[in-house]
Amino acid sequence: MKSSSRINCASPSDVPSVTEIRDLLRPDHKVVLYFTKCKDLDKKRIVEQLSEKLPECSVFFSGSDHATEWITVMPVVGISQLILRSDEITNAIDAYNETCVFLQGRYADGTLAPDWSSHEHGEHCLFENSLTGQIVEAPFAYPILPEHIDPYFFAQFVKSTPSCATVASLITDSFHDGARILEFIVPKSADYQANS
Questions:
Q1: 158 closest CA partner among 110, 102, 97
Q2: CB atoms < 10 A from the CB of 102, how many?
Q3: Alpha carbon distance 98, 15 (integer Å)
Q4: E-strand spans in the chain?
Q5: How far apart (Å, rounded) are the C-alpha atoms in residues 49 and 35?
Q6: DSSP secondary-structure letter at 26?
Q7: Where are the alpha helices (DSSP H) in 85-150?
Q8: How far apart are CA 74 and CA 31, in angstroms?
Q9: Residue 17 phi, psi dihedral angles, 5° rounding
Q10: Global pTM value
Q11: pLDDT digit string (tens) for 133-180?
């Protein structure tokens, strides 16, 4: 879990400079801006501006309480690392899809091996292997395109699948790093479909 620096902002004009924010960020440390609730707080604009100036981060509205609203700035896996590992990422996505199809097929026809537990929830089934520890959140609609893969489910899969260890090493935050990895691959998937 990431630690965080809290910065209190009485108004949008109190947002620290990009340099100040960047100086506080570490792979395992995020910055949370706490804004006093006010009429002129344009969260969307602040998120968009910080996202543009901090492309190495995920910037998002992260909640509120009775007195404040929060915007989080969180470092995510860098594009240079994704470029270096693009083949491994593509292989991990393929492995996730193939494993989902295999397990859902076995589950549907009642031939799931005894070392696999299953639990249906919503449009997914959670499979967990008691021998290997592998975790697979498999959607009932498959195979799925990269842009439809849930980032957290993908991260769970790669972290529990030894053949995906290189991709797992890129993930500090399961959801946000998983999302960055999948966002990196989506344009390639779209280009492939457009040219096929």
A1: 97
A2: 15
A3: 45
A4: 3-9, 29-36, 57-64, 68-75, 116-121, 124-129, 135-139
A5: 16
A6: B
A7: 86-109
A8: 7
A9: -65, 160
A10: 0.82
A11: 999 999 987 667 778 899 999 999 999 999 999 999 999 999 999 999
